[in-house]
Amino acid sequence: METLRRIIERNDTRRGRIFDLGIQALIVLSLITFSIETLPDLSENAQRWLRYVEIVTVAIFTIEYALRIIVAERKSEFIFSFFGLVDFLSIAPFYIASGVDFRSVRVFRLLRLFRAFKIVRYNKAIQRFHRALMIAREELVLYLLVTTMLLYFSSVGIYYCEHDAQPKEFASVFHSMWWAVATLTTVGYGDVYPVTTGGRIFTFVVLLIGLGVVSVPAGLVASALSKAREMEQ
Amino acid sequence: METLRRIIERNDTRRGRIFDLGIQALIVLSLITFSIETLPDLSENAQRWLRYVEIVTVAIFTIEYALRIIVAERKSEFIFSFFGLVDFLSIAPFYIASGVDFRSVRVFRLLRLFRAFKIVRYNKAIQRFHRALMIAREELVLYLLVTTMLLYFSSVGIYYCEHDAQPKEFASVFHSMWWAVATLTTVGYGDVYPVTTGGRIFTFVVLLIGLGVVSVPAGLVASALSKAREMEQ
Amino acid sequence: METLRRIIERNDTRRGRIFDLGIQALIVLSLITFSIETLPDLSENAQRWLRYVEIVTVAIFTIEYALRIIVAERKSEFIFSFFGLVDFLSIAPFYIASGVDFRSVRVFRLLRLFRAFKIVRYNKAIQRFHRALMIAREELVLYLLVTTMLLYFSSVGIYYCEHDAQPKEFASVFHSMWWAVATLTTVGYGDVYPVTTGGRIFTFVVLLIGLGVVSVPAGLVASALSKAREMEQ
Amino acid sequence: METLRRIIERNDTRRGRIFDLGIQALIVLSLITFSIETLPDLSENAQRWLRYVEIVTVAIFTIEYALRIIVAERKSEFIFSFFGLVDFLSIAPFYIASGVDFRSVRVFRLLRLFRAFKIVRYNKAIQRFHRALMIAREELVLYLLVTTMLLYFSSVGIYYCEHDAQPKEFASVFHSMWWAVATLTTVGYGDVYPVTTGGRIFTFVVLLIGLGVVSVPAGLVASALSKAREMEQ
Predict the structure, then answer these.
(1) Quick check: A132 contacting D, CB < 8 Å?
(2) Which of B35, B37, B133 to mutate to test the interface with A (most CBs of A within 10 A)?
(3) 3-state secondary structure of B83
(4) Coil, strand, or helix at residue A189?
(5) What does the alpha-carbon distance between residue B225 and residue A216 come to, in Å, rounded to a whole number?
């Protein structure tokens, strides 16, 4: 019992590390098969294989879940912990989907992505990123508010500049928001862009302001990351 | 009277916080209805509802404005303060528009956006952002000057490179400026781009310089934000 | 004489500041008329006015140049100094162009842009920017070298991935460089982009590396600007 | 012997510097001819000249390689060192390609790019960049992991939003990844973009998060560069 707990809950033994790596590999495999299933024109053979992989994956995750409950000192605490719920949600859709009809399967398929959260248990990178986000939380909320306001006023402005010239692309303030998102983030797909002189000057002004707002989080996260690193040491 | 003042001007009581949240919710509601009104093909029913919402909103804002004047210790000082003027401009267009004919309504509609400024009273995020902009003011002005010069010379340069090959897209230095804005901010809509070898090499050189200029404000604002945070504490 | 020198060379008197502002306004006017001249379909009337403005501008700049020589203590030193040469080149093209035939005028027109450099004399922003560039010089040269190498290898890589699928867009390594410039700077006009799976994966890898290289100068310039500010104080 | 070693291995004599510059010029020339060879419709004359340049380049590199072995104190150590192998791989393809048939030449041509690594021996900029990458290694790996996860979930999300509306562009999660790469890096070619309201809102959310993730390495590399500079001094 004590040996089993050590293998499952910790990774300071060789077998513990193998167990951890095995589970992680299975999570990645599961995400890859999820993607492959979306490919159009899959042969029947491929579909059968994907189903086999899915059954084996769920079987192993179920055993893992059972083992984690068995070795947990306070069982109910584990079951209702973040990782306990994630473990449960990683396998539950499979068992429920077996009993229902075909059409709702697509939603259940999406629920399988919960398995990705299982990897957080092992991933120090994501844990540090999470800590960095906590450090810069206040600034990031501020940034979201200012960005939202900037997007709103850009949309209203460009709507008034361009609506008459391009009544379809800039049909309403909501339609104009798509332009504002693509422009202020500097993605610039090129599906909507101003054609009037007024709209272009407005775009210029908005971008000058936007460059000082929208790329701010990069700096915030970068400095928070270095703080998070110091805190770990 | 003292209790009323406390509810309206401060938020250290429960009723004061409810009052503040109510006004804020109304401002957001007002901005949303403003956007909905721009949607094409609105049903008569929807238009009637939007008019009702507008009347109720203005009524409440008018009451709020009256109350703020009543509780203000120095009345004329409040009326001509920034927030006093904003409160006035948030309701004035509605009363004036009722007396004039239909065609000029569109401009008055736009004036309703002044209501957005009312939210600044409650929003600490925008206040801190404003303080950060004040800290980095000098650098930001410098950045605007250098960016403007860079844009001007890029426009002249690309005009000479591309005018003969694309006389329509690069018709003059002013037309070329649109290309310069879209390129130096790295938005790149793709509606205008150089096609000659000279123009492409010029674009490359301009972008190498531009990347060191145009994204500078992000760093300036980020560091000013952290200074503004320190100053608050 | 001493009073004249004070007006022209310094700006600690009221008349000195007016003189400086007047020259600066004239420079900006000159750059604007330069741009207007490139507009297609200018009326004869407008062209005549632009010619008048040009003659007046050159006349004033000539007087300014003469005055600066007169008040300079070491005349030859001023004439061959940076600003002396800029002042000379700002007016010389006009006098030379009067004597030659029409076709070469276009090149002379471009030389008028030298007038923009005159403004550097008054512009503290550009002077500080120049100082910042000096501070980060070494890193910026390094960045140019690494960027050039990254661009070269990206071009070669995408050429091998995409040449067979798009023989026209990726006709040679040189043609592919245009794609590399537009992609690594994240401008992404959308006139050339990879269509093969190999080319897309290559683009992904190149962009992951590129994001860590191409936006570095923004950080370098931002920190150099704050150093330059400290040095001024 | 001692004089020769000094010329080849060090650059503290005048002849040593000339030797170094000569080799570097030859490397750059070699990379340029490599690019020229990819130009379509090369005349026979040009092809002949390119072949001559190639033969001379390889001849000089062979002599250089031989000299470096001769002057090396521990010969086998040099041969199996990084730069020894690079020197070997720079000339080997030429000799092997002479003996085989025409079709595989294209792959051998690509191997000639190994010559670019020869320049690292002389380039302090790249050495410092390499040191900076070592300093920020841990953070960069973290960034790659988080970026990969973000890309994966963006692809899955947009696939579910857009697959029904654009079954060709968003045919599978793998196809959607191309959109995710072009969007999160803000390149935005404009060949694929969401058209549904759901997809556009999803793009907005993903970009808000993405801007705080994808541009982080620029900050990391910039600060690592300044640390690397300090370490050198």
Answers:
(1) no
(2) B35
(3) helix
(4) coil
(5) 9
Cα A76 to Cα D4: distance, rounded to the nearest angstrom: 78
Q: Shortest Cα distance from B22 to chain A (angstroms)?
A: 18
- Distance separating alpha carbons of residues D61 and D84, to the nearest angstrom: 12
What is the SS3 assignment for D164? coil
The DSSP call for residue D191 is: S
What is the largest distance, in Å, between two alpha-carbon atoms of chain A?
76
pLDDT tens digits for A193-230?
A: 999 999 999 999 999 888 777 777 777 777 787 788 78
D128 touches C at CB < 8 Å: yes
Chain D touched by B99 (CB under 8 Å): no
Tokens coding C51: 């010619």
Optimal mutation site among D216, D220, D223, D226, interface A, most CBs of chain A within 10 A: D216
Name the average pLDDT for chain D: 85
Half-sphere exposure of C57 (CA within 13 A, CB side): 25
What's the angle, vertex CA B205, arms to CA B204 and CA B208, rounded to 5?
85
The ipTM of this complex is 0.87
- Which tens digits make up the pLDDT trace of B136-147? 887 788 788 888
Q: Which residue of C has its CA nearest to B184?
A: C187
CA distance to C28, D64, D108, per residue, from D85 (Å):
59, 13, 16
- CB-CB contact of A140 with A222 (8 Å): no
Sign of CA dihedral B60, B61, B63, B68: positive
Measure the CA–CA gap between B37 and B105, rounded to whole angstroms. Answer: 12
The neighbour count for residue C75, using CB atoms within 10 Å, is: 13
Element (H, E) at D22: helix D14-37
Distances D146 to A129, A232, C210, D150 between C-alpha atoms, Å: 8, 19, 17, 6
Given an 8 Å threshold on Cβ–Cβ distance, is A145 in contact with B123? yes
Cα B52 from Cα B36, distance rounded (Å) = 14
Distances (CA, A) of A165 to A23, A162, A197, B109, B182: 57, 5, 11, 20, 20
Length of chain A: 233
Burial class (CB in 10 A: 0-12, 13-18, 19+), B222: buried
Q: How far apart are CA D131 and CA A110, in angstroms?
A: 43
Q: Distance (Å) from the C-alpha of residue C211 to the closest C-alpha of chain D?
A: 6
Instruction: Give Cα D75 distance to the centre of its chain.
Output: 29
| DSSP code of residue A171 | S
CA of A216, closest CA in chain C: separation in Å?
A: 12
Least CB-CB distance to C188: which of D125, D177, D188? D188
Task: Give C219's contacts (C-beta < 8 A, 6+ positions apart).
Answer: B219, D218, D219, D222, D223
Stated pTM of the model:
0.88
pLDDT of residue A206: 92
Q: What is the Cα gyration radius of chain A?
A: 25
Domains delineated in chain A: 1-120 (1.20.120.350), 123-233 (1.10.287.70)
Please report which residue ranges of D72-172 form alpha helices under DSSP H: 75-79, 82-99, 105-111, 115-118, 124-135, 137-162
Segment among A189-193, A215-219, B91-95, D134-138 with least mean pLDDT: A215-219
Kindly state the DSSP code that residue C104 receives in the 8-state scheme. Answer: G
d(CA D96, CA D89): 11
Say how far apart CA B35 and CA B37 lie, in whole Å: 5
Lowest mean pLDDT among A47-51, C51-55, C99-103: C99-103
B105 close to C195: Cβ distance less than 8 angstroms: no
Whether D142 has its CB under 8 Å from any CB of chain A: the answer is yes
Task: Please name the residue that has the structure tokens 């000659």.
Answer: B196
| Element of type H or E holding D222 | helix D216-232
Confidence of residue D121 (pLDDT cuts 50, 70, 90): confident
